[in-house]
Prior knowledge:
Blueprint: E1 12-17, H1 19-26, E2 47-51, E3 66-67, E4 79-80, E5 87-89, H2 91-104, H3 117-123, E6 130-135, E7 155-157, H4 158-162, E8 167-168
Parallel strand pairs: 2-7, 3-8
Antiparallel strand pairs: 1-6, 2-5, 4-7
Amino acid sequence: MNSIEKIDPLNALYKYVTYETLCHVVDGTIRFTQPSAFNDPFELLPAITVPKKYKGVKRGEIELRIDLNAKRRSNHSDMLSEFPEDCEINDGFNRDIVKNLNKIIGILCLSKRYNSHLMWSHYSDSYSGAIIRFDGDHPFFYNKINMEYRQKRPIRSENYYKSGELIPISEFYT
């Protein structure tokens, strides 16, 4: 039995790659991407609200405290269901979040689907690259974090980040 047959297809993870990236992986290297290099500028970033009359957090005022191992909390009591009328988004704070995340993490983006046309077109050189299958049960993936997909961008108050408590990194994966 070869190693490919040992991978449980229900727990397999896939990486869509260009031929050039495939060569790097075969040579033993793989890229962990910093959040600022993602295609979507809102990836990992909730809409952070501050009252219009009070500009709240100025850039650089808050040191984000992130727990890299904590699981996503099941209740989302910190999320707002609607954007408050008297508030606006603090883009400066969002840039600070990305700046902080860039310093501490790189993300290996994988898919649970091997047959996504969208992934093939975006990440494997317009369908001419390759797909790599990984064993999702391997200890390397012990702390993997699944992306949570939603129709709308999450909304949080700046107070959530000003509390000083540790924020699970998994809560940014939305």
